[in-house]
Amino acid sequence: MSKRPARCYTEIDRPPYTRREYVRGGPDPKIRIFDMGNRQGKFDLRGDLIIEERCQVSHKALEALRISVNRNLSTMMGKDDFRFVIHVKPFHILRENRMMAFAGADRLQDGMRRAFGKPVGRAARVRDGQVICSIWAYDTPKNREILKKILRIGGSKLPRPSRVKLVSEENSD
Fold it and tell me: Helix or strand or coil: residue 108?
């Protein structure tokens, strides 16, 4: 993405821009893997990371969340003792109207109001109360504490506050 901070892109202030066939040169998302760990395991504990406010989460923030959570899960639990899924996908294309940014640029350029801009990145649009990611594991007291800790670490990568919810599931097949 560009040099602007993420706070410039977290508000949902215009309609979604998702039609790739109309976008020239739109960037590919950084995040490629959405499902990690043991996909065939029968786990009985699920931990959800739930976002508290409506916002846009950039593809770089989702990739940072994925890397940190997957690394911590692999080291603390082992590669076959969990399943980790990111539920949101970065479909919205972020645009930026680039301006000259050097000394004296204010005299050279005022810019155009309501300019359309060029594609600079991707973001996932999320509603308040939406589940961002889930982790499945075996239900033990140690795993409960590990899931809470790791999901809090992952929540720190998001632009808005989030909470952790643990749910015990029955194996029903």
Answer: helix
pLDDT, tens digit, 9 for 90 and up, residues 117-165? 888 889 999 999 999 999 999 999 999 999 999 999 999 999 999 999 9
Residue 82 parent element (H or E): strand 82-86
What is the value of pTM for the model shown? 0.85
Task: Tokens 């749910």: give the residue.
Answer: 167
Of 85, 40, 91, nearest to 65 by C-alpha is: 85
Q: Are 162 and 52 in contact, with CB atoms under 8 Å apart?
A: yes
DSSP string, 126-153: E-TT-EEEEEEE---HHHHHHHHHHHHH
Phi, psi values for residue 56, rounded to 5°: -115, 130
Closest CA to 120 of 34, 20, 32, 28: 28
